[in-house]
Each structure stands twice: as C-alpha cells, then as structure tokens.
Request: fold
Amino acid sequence: MKRNPALRDALFAAIVLILLLAIPMLHRSPAFEDFIIRLSAMALFATSLNLLVGTTGMVSFGHGMFYGFAAYAFGLTMQLTELSLPVAALFAVALTTIAALVVGAICVRLSTDYFAFITLAVQMLFFSVIVSWQSLTGGDQGLRGGIPRRRIFGFDLGSQLHLYQFCAIVAVLGLLALRHVSMSPFGNTLRMIRDNAERASFVGIVLWRARLLAFTIAGGFAGIGGVLAALFVSGAYPELADWPNSGQAIFAVMLGGINSFLGPVLGAMILLALNDLVQRFTEYHGLVLGIVILAFALGLRRGVLDFIHLVWSKRAR
Amino acid sequence: MNVEINHLTKSFGGVRAIDDVSLAFPSGSLSAVIGPNGAGKTTFFNLISGAFMADSGEVLLDREDILQLSKTERMRRGIGRAFQVASCFPTMTVRANLMAAVTAHAGRWTSLSHRFPSAGMRERAEEVMEFVGLTDVADVEATILSHGDQKLLDIAIALALEPKVLLLDEPTAGMGPDERWRMIERVRGLWERRKLTLIFIEHDMDIVFKVASSIRVLCYGKVLAEGTPDQIRNNQAVIDAYLGAEENAS
Reply:
C-alpha cells in the first residue's frame, strides 16, 4: 500500500465514511449526528483555509466571507428559483469560486501583512453589504423562510439522519479532493512558495498565479462548507461571514496543526466540542477558549497533530 | 551562450551601484568577478538574472536583448543562478528539492491532474543529484544539511533548470580552506562537463587566479580592469584599489 499513496488515502476515506454511515444504524444519537453535521461544514472550512495558511504560508483573515457567501448564494437560489438542490448547491459553489477569484486578484499580490489586512477588510465590506441589503438578505435577521425542496436522490434533507448522511458524504469527498490538491504538483508548488518564494520564482514559478489559484480553490471548498452550514441552519446568517467566524477557522487550524493535512479537522473537532461543553457550564465560554488556546500556543508551540508527528518522528529515530 | 553587457546602469536612491558597465563573457568561458565589498558584484548578478530591473543599458544573450524580460523569462532563456546565502526549500529533502525544480522547469507546476511527482521527474532529479554528488544525502532534509551541501544543493537546483549561463555568487562563502578548494573543483568539473558559460563571484584570490580563465574587476560600480589572471595580478590600478589593500589587511 505504501507504493500507492493515492489509493491509501482513498481507502482511509472509505473506511471513515463507512464508519460514519454505520454508526446511526447501530445507535441513534441526535447529539452525535448534530455534531458531525456541524463538523462537516467546519472541517471543510478549516481545511480549505489551511491550504492557504499551512501549505502556502498565506494567512487570510477573511476566509469566512466565502463560507458566508456560499450560504447566502445557496439559500437565495433555493428560495428565488425553481432549481433543484444539487444544481443550486453547485451553482452556489461555482459563484463562490468566482468571488474568490475576484477577491484573490485584488489581494494576492500584496505582501504577507497587507494580505492579511486586506482579506479582513474585504470581508468586513462584504459583511456590511449583507447587513444593509435588507430586501435581499434579510439584514441582520438573516435569511429567513427556510430552504425549500430539500430532496436529493431519495434523501430527504429535512430528516436529521438523511442530512447527517449527506453531510458525511460531502465532507469526506471534499476532504479527499483537497488532499489530492495538496499532494499534486501544484500542492508542492505551494510548499515551495511557503519555504522560499524567491527561489521558487527563480525556478520558473509565477508567484501571483500560483497564489491566486490556491486562493480560488480554497474559496471554493469553503463554499462547499458554507452550503452544508446553510442546510444545517436552514438559512443563512450574517455571522457566517463575519470575522469571528474566520477567527474560528484560524483557531481550528492552529489547534489541530498547520503541517498535518488532518490537523484542521481535528482542530475543528476540539473547537466544536469545547464550545458545546463550555457553553453548558458557563456563559464566559470565550474566556475558557482563550485559556485553552493559550495553553496550546505556549505549551505545545504547535497544533495537536503536528505535536504528535514530532513526538512520533523523534521516537522513530 | 554569449553574454554581452553594454552600458548597464542601476542607481539606488542617487547612489550608482552599477555605473555604465560594459563586459563580454564568451560562450563556454569560466570567468570570475572580483572587487571590494560594495563594488556592486551581487547587484551586477541581480541585473543579469532579472531580480532587479536596470535603469538603462543592454544585456545581450546571443545578441537578444533580455533586459526587459522578467526573471522567469530570463531563466527560461537559459540563465541560472545560485545565491550568496544558499537558497533552497528547507522543509524538503534534497531529492524533493530537485524534483520540485525539474517539475517547475517542465512547466508542470500548476498541474492538478495527478500526484507529485509527475512521471520522469524522479529520474531527472536523480541525474542531477548524481551529477553534483549529492546522492548520499538524497533523503536528508535541506535544513539539516551541512553548509557546503546546502551551497551545492543551491547550485544543483540551478543546474536542474538546464541553464546555458550559470551565475554563482560566492560558491565558497563561509567555508574553511579545504572545503573551499573541494567546492571550487566541483564547480570547475560542472563547467567542463556541461560546457556552460560560468561566471562566479569570489573573494579568495588564490582560487580566482588558479581557476578562472579570465577576470573582471568591479570597483564602486565601474569596471576597473579585465583580463587574464596574469594581467590582473600585475595591473597597478587593481593592486592599488583591491589586491594591495587585501594584502595589507591580512
């Protein structure tokens, strides 16, 4: 199996997917299913962000705008047109990808600090548009009225079980696709840029073109996460596109580990679990989260999965 | 490939780092560029390779003026370069560094259709590793290589792009005396086997006089002298400005 890493990854994904689909057949737990549905959106969101942060070395503070953009694009398409759900979802993701291309064209030529600033600025602009364009988006109340016609290939996404199955399938396939991007020659190009941009340009890589492509792909996959989020909340809210949401994705990436492909997924798990757990006991959940993140940053100095890799490779020597 | 430079000029905020420099490097020659610190040697390389844009002048590559081209386009025309501070991809192994370089050179760097590396890239990286003598450390991460091997890897990355002209900025910088000679012999070997036009910057005069077939001396951005090692050794202007000072200092 070592000889074909692509097959190994596909096999791993298949096993995870089968496990996820089997669990509700053995034991129904609404809390668990709810958790996985939210995780599927968050995992795609955080892992796509890590294509920028960990793989390319571009820290974007505005990734949430594409998550939110897709949620609104999907919700509005379902409400305003007669398109079926899969078509509307594809349309929303395509639209988000184009939006990422346009935003990326403005942002990617800037140096690291200014890139971070401008992604944040564009996101705030987008957030303001959502809040002020009340007639279309419902303003700060969010997109109400639900998402109609939730049937797809015999799935009824109105039922929690079917939504769970749908989200698990989309998330696993989406992550597998992102894994492929990360392991392709293009993914390697992104690591070259992260390691040494000057050298990369001297071997013939056009930096802005590679960065723009990465930004666009990452935006598109965040869009898939956004569609799942819209399905879960049955609508869209401005908070999905707000900067604290981008911050959540960055937390997930940092908590889980930027140098491991599954790091952001683990980070998203920890973050969601912490949120749920802490909210049950105290209203000061920000305080607890902050302490946990500080502990990771100061204690491990890296994400959990990166830490495990480090310990593992030290032991192997 | 012939490299001909005519009236090249570059200023940084009023200071003329390169001032009306005209030099020719015939195809297949092995030349050294020497001069005191701040003479403009690295700037000269930056202008030829396109890291900086010149204010005026010409850089002719087999009679084609490449001065307006980007560094990527110049690289495709056959200009390769290694850096004063070894420049490679630190988190990758030696093999991965070279596979990355040949992949980029083959124009596959945006490819999404398959996994890295593309077919044939491993073999080509292997060839370059063997050529420069890095096979023993093929699976070592670049960041933990010895200083000398890092410099060699930098040169290997440049060679992976099949240059016709190779610019080496102090290939022996930061090395002990023995290591320097080993390095420069390797560089000489590369030059002989690949029939490159090789230009290198060097501070060790013993090496320069022994290895280079012709020498260019830069001083305050101008050409102070050019000629064979014997001519340069006996050139009074060079002795006054550079060689003499060097001897006094040591």
Observations:
- Chain B has nine helices and ten strands.
- The longest strand of chain B covers residues 15-25.
- The first helix of chain B runs from residue 41 to 49.
